[in-house]
Amino acid sequence: MLFAIHNILFFFRFSIKGDYPDYCIFSLEYLFICISISMLYKSANIYSKILRYIGTVVIVIGFLQGLIGILMFIVISQDFEADKIYNFKSNEKNYQTRRYSFGFATLDDIRYTFETYRVYQYLPFEKQIGKTDLFELKSDLNFGDENFSIDIKESENKRTIEFSSINGKQYKKTID
């Protein structure tokens, strides 16, 4: 039941503050599914056999993905750990934007993914309100600038996220 509630909230873009609690819950959920499927091998019921077969296929696919993930861990894991976190307040609301960068020696460009969350002050929850992908070579923004800033503007039921660097360059995107 806990996993179902977590998945429903995650579908509606609510999560526990930070990245790691959600990663842990999803890992425990996968472990629970694997244990549940393995317990179905004790039953001879036709429905159990069908569910066991489907579950085994899902586990094998997950194992193969994990095997690829082990071999490509260094490249893949870059997208899962924020390298910079921006906390800011706009319109009397608290926000947090996490920057994830993806670049490798064989890639020409670095992709920066900015995930913006509405943070609730006394609750351990957050809601994702926007995700923006920007490339270092295709954007005029200076991502390494210490004065790089993020702000949210609201006007006429419309929210816009603005990325700004000290060189006066800006990138604006409408968010929901």
Strand numbers in spatial order across the main sheet: 1-5-4-3-2
Domain count: the total is 2
Given as residue ranges, the uncertain stretches (5+ residues, pLDDT < 50) are none
* Portion in strands: 25-35%
- Characterize the largest beta sheet: strand count, sense, and whether it forms a barrel: 5 strands, antiparallel
Mean pLDDT: 86
Helix content: 25-40%
Q: What is the CA-based Rg, rounded?
A: 21 Å
* Separate helix tally: 4
SSE succession? HEHHHEEEEEEE
Number of β-strand runs = 8
- List the quaternary state of the chains: single chain
Q: Give the CA-CA distance, first to last residue.
A: 29 Å
Category from helices, strands and their pairing: alpha+beta
Shape: globular
Walk me through what this model shows:
By secondary structure, the chain is of the alpha+beta class. Helices cover 34% and strands 34% of the residues. The protein folds into two domains: 2-71, no CATH class; 79-175. It contains four helices and eight strands. A five-stranded antiparallel β-sheet has the order 1-5-4-3-2. The protein has a three-stranded antiparallel β-sheet with strand order 6-7-8, with no helix packed on it. A hairpin with a 2-residue loop joins β6 and β7.
